[in-house]
Fold this protein.
Amino acid sequence: MISFNGRKIVIIGGGMGIGLAAAELLDGMGAAIFVADKDRASAARIPPTSGFAACDATKPQEVEAMLLSAESAMGEIDGLFITVGGATVGPLAEMDLPQWDREMSFNLDSVYIACRAALPFLAKAGRSAIVTTSSGYAIMPGTDRVAYTAAKAGVIAFSRSLSMVAASQGTRVNCIAPGPTDTPRFRAMNGGEEGVEKVRQSMPLGSIPTPADCARLALFLLSDAAGQITGQTVHVNGGLLTP
C-alpha cells in the first residue's frame, strides 16, 4: 500500500494540469502539501488545506523564498514534484535566440533552479524524493518545437545526473515523461473535439492519458513504494511511444 501519512510535499506548477491533479490526490492521502505556481489565481483552485506561494520557478530568489515558506508551514520538506513547462510552437526559421533562451529558461532552467535550491531542505529529512517532468518529445523529433525538445531532453539528462549527486543524502530523483495529456491546452492545440478524437484513435490503449494518470505515476515515485528506484525516466502515453 502507498501511504503519504506524515509526508510533506512541495509541488511547483501545482495550480493546473498534472500538478493540480497531484495536489488533489495527495490531499486525500494524508500528505501535507505546499503548492507553488506563477499564477496567483491558482490559490483558489488547490485543495483548501494546502499552503500556497506565488513563485516564478525561473527566478532563484523566489524559489528560495517559497521553500523557506513551505518549510515554515510544514516543519520540513521530504518531497518535491516540479511540473513546469510548455512549448511555443512554430518553425525553427522564425525562432530567434531570445525566444530560444525563453524556452530553455522555462523548461530546463526552472528544473535546475528548483532542484538545486531544494536539495538542502530535502537533506534535513533524511529519506526524500524529487520527481521532475520531461516529455515524450524529449526522445522524438518535434519539428515545430525544437527548443522544447532540446530542453525536455535536458531535463532527463539533468535528472539522471542529479540522482547520483543526491543519492548520498538519501534523496531519490526520478523523471516522468508525459505524452498527449487531456488538458484544456492540449484540446485547444488540437483544434477541439475533432482533433482530440484523431489523437485518441491513434492511442494503442484507446484513450488519452489524463492529468491524474500522470500524477499517479509521480506520486508512486515520490512514495516509499519506490524506495529503491532512482535515476529513471518513466513515460506515460498510453503506448503511443515505447522507448
User: Anything to note?
Assistant: The chain has seven helices and seven strands. Residues 8-182+211-235 form a domain with the Rossmann fold fold (CATH 3.40.50.720). The two ends are 28 Å apart (CA to CA).
